[in-house]
Write a structure and sequence with these properties.
- The protein is α/β, with parallel strands linked by helices.
- It is 31% helix and 14% strand.
- The chain has eleven helices and twelve strands.
- It has helices at 36-42, 59-62, 83-88, 101-116, 119-129, 156-167, 182-187, 195-201, 244-252, 272-276, 291-309, and strands spanning 3-6, 23-25, 48-51, 70-73, 92-94, 148-152, 171-175, 190-192, 204-207, 232-235, 258-261, 280-282.
- The strands form two sheets. A seven-stranded parallel β-sheet has the order 8-7-6-9-10-11-12, with helices on both faces. It has a five-stranded parallel β-sheet with strand order 2-1-3-4-5.
- Strand 11 (258-261), helix 10 and strand 12 (280-282) form a beta-alpha-beta unit.
- The longest helix is centred in the last third of the chain and has 19 residues, at 291-309.
- It is globular.
């Protein structure tokens, strides 16, 4: 029977279907997570490895086993896995591109409302003062009806966000390295514009692009200045897509009105400077942090991994070249 190694302990319901046909190795609930050395020692006996909560899978770990056929990630992003090292060894890398879509898009709407309607600010102030004081003509916030949402990255999450944002009456514009077909643009009521124009004309900019070499500091000191002084920036994708220093300066100097972040350039470190700024909402990379979502994500990853072990091409394959003849 083939064996699958997990980097940490997970709920039994996530592995219930898989353990019928595969041996599952994971730390018990007391230990919770394996060290890197423990994983390297265990890998030669296993056929697949599942990274949970972005556990790093570097080249030396991948090289520790000649038996390894699949590496799964319990999430959509995979920049913590050495894809090149895996591909060179013919190891399939699997992610979870489908189960994260609705939860992430929904959480992005939450971030948007939290900063554009001052929900977090009001919560903090009322808890501190216990007085229902409010300015008669408060100018920082805005309603979403009739405003333009600029989406950077029109993949599955970007498309789902556009659907949800249109319920609020928002106009949708997007930028992506790969433009949608005219039929899809019509279906999502989305207008393609270059990045610089999107930044200039959007009231809210939401980032849902993957983190690649090409997207590192895609939002930087130079182009963040193109945004409206009344605009907001939302990032629920990957932290290093936004140059943190540039964003903090823009917020402090009122170059833009506000920001909401679920990811950070130097994650998990959050600077004191960022924490002290009042026109930013921050959450701890929690867009999919619900048990029901995480279990679904792990099931999706394991389904793809077991497909590889059975000689089938999974739909959630990252490095497609390993299945090319």
């Amino acid at each position: 029977m083939k064996k699958i190694l997990l980097t940490r302990n997970i709920p039994h319901e996530a592995i219930a279907d898989v353990e019928k046909n595969y041996l599952i190795t994971m730390p018990d609930s007391q230990k919770d997570i394996y060290t890197k050395d423990e994983l390297i020692a265990l890998l030669p006996e296993h056929d697949a490895l599942l990274s949970i909560n972005e556990y790093p899978i570097p080249e030396d770990m991948i090289a520790a086993s000649s038996r390894l056929k699949a590496i799964g990630n319990g999430g959509a992003g995979y920049n913590h896995i050495d894809i090149n090292a895996a591909t060179e060894r013919g190891i399939a890398v699997i992610n979870t591109p489908f189960s994260v879509v609705d939860p992430t898009a929904e959480f992005t709407i939450g971030l948007m409302l939290s900063i554009t309607r001052g929900i977090v600010m009001y919560n903090n102030e009322l808890k501190a003062t216990r007085q229902c004081r409010k300015d008669m003509f408060f100018e920082r916030d805005m309603v979403l009806e009739g405003k333009t949402l600029g989406i950077i990255g029109m993949g599955n999450i970007g498309k789902k966000l556009s659907e949800k944002a249109r319920v609020f009456g928002m106009k949708i514009r997007y930028f992506d390295m790969f433009r949608l077909s005219p039929e899809l643009e019509a279906a999502y009521h989305a207008e393609y514009i270059p990045l610089e124009d999107l930044l200039r004309h959007s009231d809210v900019v939401a980032i849902h692009a993957p983190y690649l070499k090409e997207t590192h500091h895609l939002i930087n000191d130079e182009n963040i200045k193109l945004m409206k002084p009344t605009a907001y920036l939302i990032n629920a994708a990957r932290g290093p897509i936004v140059e943190e220093r540039a964003l903090l300066d823009a917020l402090k100097n009122k170059t833009i009105r506000g920001a909401a972040l679920d990811v950070f350039e130097f994650e998990p470190a959050i600077s004191e400077e960022m924490a002290a700024i009042d026109n930013i909402v921050i959450t701890p990379h929690a867009g999919t942090n619900l048990k029901e979502v995480r279990v679904t994500m792990l099931k999706e990853a394991l389904t793809g991994m077991t497909a590889v072990l059975e000689g089938k091409r999974p739909t959630n394959l990252v490095n497609r070249s390993v299945f090319e003849n």
